[in-house]
Amino acid sequence: GGCSGMSYHMDFENEDGVSDEDMVMDHIEHNFKLVCDPKSLLYLFGMSLDYSHELIGGGFQFHNPNAESSCGCGKSFGA
After folding, report:
1. How many alpha carbons fall within 13 Å on the CB side of residue 45?
2. Helix (H) / strand (E) containing 19
3. What gap in Å lies between CA 62 and CA 8, rounded to an integer?
4. DSSP E strands: which ranges in the chain?
5. Which one, out of 1, 24, 64, 67, has a CA that is 20 to 30 A from the CA of 78?
């Protein structure tokens, strides 16, 4: 949940926590993998992720073309 319905959540995961149904995307250039469950992936197609060092409103910035609404903090959305 979130104040606009669904929320973004990022965390570290061990390999044994990844299921066969999860989508795993290798980013070899930056030496990391992105893992997403299939249900959530439907809402994330086309999304871009950026990072801001601003003191106010800084941090990860989610730009999701699938979001019909979003909250002021930018950490949740409705689709």
Report:
1. 3
2. none
3. 8
4. 6-7, 23-27, 32-36, 48-52, 59-63, 69-70, 76-78
5. 24
